[in-house]
Design goal:
Length: about 500
């Protein structure tokens, strides 16, 4: 297949907001790929390289200035091989060789292909939000049930691999995707609930009500003496958290997969700020802050996968293997006990509570109503699209943030507002130093960024607005913190913002 076909399809997908049109464009292309081409094509269209980051920065790419080819002749296989070779380079002389390979690739590409390659190699095309559409297209082209493809994607965390299995081995190949010790699965996620009472009503009281701790999500795997620790975005951080590794080593089992939250506590037992926990995830050397785990789910124990069992059974396994490290929870509480648990969580400095259906399986990668989160304030995780230069006391600092919500159909983020409220001097300095690394372009007032950074915003609600393309704007938005544990694909979608519009009768700003 010619590479240009992939580039054209990517443009066609980006040009429409209609999920149906996107799926149709993807299907038309997928119907023509050979088995070898499935993985790279699915990967590129999702905006990622199968090889991951290959150490080629945007600056290197813009410095290339290769004259474009007149006609498209590059094939998918050729591009795949060249990128493989670049990714494999290391050691002395690799920079020169890498530039030679890049020049070779770029001189053989048309101007149109060059633009695509720049974005793809520079990490600017990343479109995690396209995953749902792509999963549908793969299932439809391979004539398989979407759920089967989705399950394989969630268990492997790799859509291109699942797609290749779907095309080459059908349902049988997809059913071989199992939870594998050492390979993280996508975490199950929650939807916001309006109040403790409404969540409890939904489950008719048949639920586990747990503290929602303000730490960082962890998934730990153990197989015999080997232990792995992963973040919410499936990044491995085993070597940064030796105290967690040691604790998991000591659990009374041969193999286990646990889902939980980790954080450090102050001397008086209150949670330390989220940023401090996150800073441990990057560190590889000395650390004073000890992280503690609070587990809330068990996905595997001693050779048995538990994902498809109800939460009540998974909790029984969790209790057996890591009872003392369980998150504070009450099971099947009445309204008064659930509310008391909520109040206790807030009193101890935690974020709120989670109410979880005891009969639900573990739906990896899904944000579903089986888990409901209840917090006293509205917060949204939004994508930073740019920042304006400040004035007055903030002159010389990048300040007022442009905020975007995720397009659930895989398009670019949709701007929903701006804010500079809540930005501390430290954050202003950080933004001013770091934002140029994410810059896509700028004008006199604003530095525009590639959609890579996620920031958590607290707000009073939303209002209709003709100023922004989604027809909705944030009300009284203020910055809480950056979310380095989230990628734009994890940001809240425009639907989450629309759900806060008072006209929909859902503007329940407080839970009280
Ligand atoms: N008892 C708990 N059960 C599940 N998740 C918990 C619990 N306590 C804290 N958490 C954290 O809350 C998150 C669940 O909320 P949600 O599914 O909405 O994810 P999120 O998008 O990361 O939300 P938030 O921004 O509120 O942390 C988990 O990812 C986890 O990090």
């Amino acid at each position: 297949m010619l590479f240009t076909q992939v580039v054209e399809t990517s443009a066609a997908v980006a040009a429409t907001r209609s999920r149906k049109t996107k799926t149709a464009a993807l299907r038309a292309l997928l119907a023509q790929v050979t088995p070898d081409e499935v993985e790279p094509v699915v990967s590129w269209l999702s905006g990622v390289l199968p090889q991951g980051r290959i150490g080629v920065g945007y600056r290197t790419l813009t410095a290339l200035q290769a004259a474009p080819a007149d006609d498209p002749t590059l094939t998918v296989a050729e591009v795949g091989t060249l990128v493989d070779r670049i990714a494999d380079l290391s050691g002395p002389g690799s920079t020169g060789l890498r530039n030679e390979l890049l020049s070779d690739l770029f001189t053989r590409a048309t101007a149109y292909e060059q633009t695509f390659l720049m974005q793809l190699l520079g990490g600017e095309l990343r479109q995690g939000a396209l995953e749902g559409v792509m999963t549908d297209a793969v299932a439809a082209t391979a004539e398989l049930p979407t759920d089967a493809v989705r399950r394989a994607v969630m268990l492997s965390g790799q859509l291109p691999r699942a797609a290749a299995a779907a095309f080459t081995g059908g349902l049988d190949a997809l059913s071989t995707f199992r939870l594998e010790l050492g390979r993280p699965v996508r975490p199950m996620l929650a939807v916001p609930a309006e109040s403790v009472e409404s969540a409890l009503d939904k489950f008719a009281g048949d639920c586990s009500v747990e503290y929602k701790l303000d730490g960082a999500r962890i998934q730990v795997h153990r197989s015999g003496d080997s232990v792995w620790v992963f973040t919410r975005t499936l990044r491995e951080i085993t070597s940064s958290v030796p105290e967690l590794v040691e604790l998991v080593h000591r659990l009374p089992c041969r193999s286990v997969v646990l889902d939980g939250e980790t954080l450090a506590l102050t001397d008086s037992g209150r949670p330390r700020p989220f940023q401090e926990t996150m800073s441990r995830f990057g560190a590889s050397t000395a650390h004073e802050l000890l992280l503690r785990p609070y587990f809330f789910d068990c996905l595997h124990l001693d050779g048995v996968d538990l994902l498809d069992l109800p939460l009540s059974e998974r909790l029984a396994s969790l209790e057996r293997v890591a009872g003392v490290h369980r998150i504070p929870a009450v099971v099947s509480p009445d309204q008064a006990a659930a509310r008391a648990h909520f109040d206790a969580a807030l009193e101890r400095g935690h974020e709120g509570i989670m109410a979880k259906s005891l009969s639900s399986p573990y739906l990896a990668g899904r944000r579903g109503s089986a888990w409901q989160k209840i917090k006293p304030e509205h917060t949204l995780d939004l994508i930073v699209l740019g920042a304006e230069w400040g004035y007055g006391r903030r002159t010389g600092f990048l300040s007022n943030l442009h905020l975007g919500a995720r397009d659930p159909d895989g398009g670019p983020p949709i701007m929903v507002g701006k804010t500079f409220k809540g930005l501390t001097d430290e954050l202003l300095r950080w933004q001013t130093t770091r934002f140029p690394d994410f810059e896509s372009h700028r004008d006199d007032h604003t530095v525009y960024l590639r959609p890579e950074l996620v920031v958590e915003i607290e707000l009073d609600g939303a209002q209709t607005s003709s100023r922004y393309p989604g027809g909705v704007a944030l009300r009284f938005a203020r910055v809480l913190r950056y979310r380095p544990d989230k990628s734009p694909a994890d940001a809240d979608s425009i639907d989450a913002v629309l759900a806060l519009l008072p006209t929909r009768g859902r503007n329940t700003t407080t839970q009280e």
